[in-house]
Q: What sequence folds into this?
C-alpha cells in the first residue's frame, strides 16, 4: 500500500502535491489531515498544512500505457479535414454503420490492434457498437479515456455522412456497465466519507455523463448534496454534507 506524508501551504495544496508524487487521483486515495495550515501574522506563527495520503488499492485501476492511442487520437483530430473529404465520397455508397466500422478499424490498426471485431446495430437515433479484442485494455485506456475519445470522434465521422443526428456509443467487453457499477460504488463510499468527516469531498474530473451517474446514485440521500465545479475538461463533482 502506497502512503506518503506531504506538506503544503494549505491542505488542498498538500493533497495536490501528494497526488502528483503518487501519480494517482483524488478518488483513489484516503486523506488524513495531520495539521491545518496557518498563515500567521506578519510572517510569525505561520505553519504549513500536513496530510497523510494513502492509496486505496481496492479502488485502484491498472494504469495502461496509452501513449500510442493518445497519439493516434491526436493525429485523427489534426487530420479531420482529410477525413471529411474522404467521407464526402464514401458516404454516398456506405451506411453510417459501415463508415463507423471502417473508421474504428483504421484507428485500431494504427494503435497496433489487428484482432478487433465490431458488432454494430441501430436503435432509434442511437448506433451501438460492441468491440472485442485481446487488447481491450488498450482500447479502453485509463478510466475509459481512449474509449471516450474514440467514441466522440466516431460520432463526428458518422454525423458527417448523414443528414439526421445520430448518437454513437462504443463499448468494449461491457466496460460501460462495469464502469457505471464502479461509479455508483464510489459515489456511496465518498458520500459516507463526507458524512464521516463533515467535509465536502471533491472527485476527479469526469465526463458529464459519468458525473450524472454519481448525481443519480446519490439523488435519494438527504444527508448530502452534489454539484459540479470547474470548467471542461476539468469539471468535477463535489459531494457535500448537509448541515
A:
Amino acid at each position: 500500500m502506497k502512503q506518503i506524508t506531504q506538506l503544503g501551504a494549505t491542505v488542498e495544496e498538500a493533497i495536490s502535491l501528494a497526488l502528483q508524487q503518487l501519480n494517482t487521483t483524488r478518488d483513489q486515495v484516503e486523506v488524513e489531515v495531520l495539521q491545518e495550515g496557518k498563515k500567521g501574522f506578519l510572517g510569525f506563527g505561520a505553519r504549513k498544512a500536513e496530510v497523510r495520503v494513502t492509496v486505496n488499492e481496492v479502488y485502484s485501476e491498472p494504469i495502461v500505457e496509452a501513449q500510442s492511442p493518445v497519439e493516434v487520437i491526436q493525429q485523427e483530430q489534426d487530420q479531420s479535414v482529410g477525413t471529411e473529404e474522404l467521407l464526402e465520397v464514401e458516404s454516398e455508397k456506405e451506411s453510417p454503420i459501415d463508415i463507423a466500422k471502417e473508421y474504428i478499424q483504421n484507428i485500431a490498426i494504427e494503435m497496433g490492434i489487428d484482432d478487433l471485431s465490431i458488432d454494430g446495430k441501430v436503435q432509434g437515433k442511437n448506433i451501438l457498437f460492441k468491440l472485442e479484442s485481446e487488447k481491450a485494455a488498450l482500447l479502453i485506456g485509463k478510466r475509459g479515456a481512449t474509449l471516450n475519445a474514440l467514441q466522440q470522434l466516431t460520432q463526428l465521422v458518422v454525423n458527417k455522412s448523414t443528414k439526421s443526428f445520430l448518437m454513437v456509443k462504443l463499448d468494449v467487453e461491457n466496460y460501460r456497465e462495469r464502469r457505471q457499477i464502479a461509479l455508483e460504488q464510489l459515489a456511496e463510499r465518498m458520500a459516507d466519507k463526507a458524512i464521516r468527516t463533515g467535509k465536502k469531498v471533491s472527485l476527479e474530473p469526469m465526463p458529464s455523463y459519468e458525473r450524472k451517474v454519481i448525481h443519480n446514485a446519490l439523488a435519494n440521500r438527504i444527508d448530502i448534496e452534489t454539484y459540479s465545479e470547474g470548467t471542461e475538461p476539468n469539471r468535477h463533482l463535489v459531494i457535500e454534507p448537509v448541515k
Summary: The chain has three domains: 1-60, 67-173, 175-243. The radius of gyration is 22 Å. The longest helix spans residues 175-197.
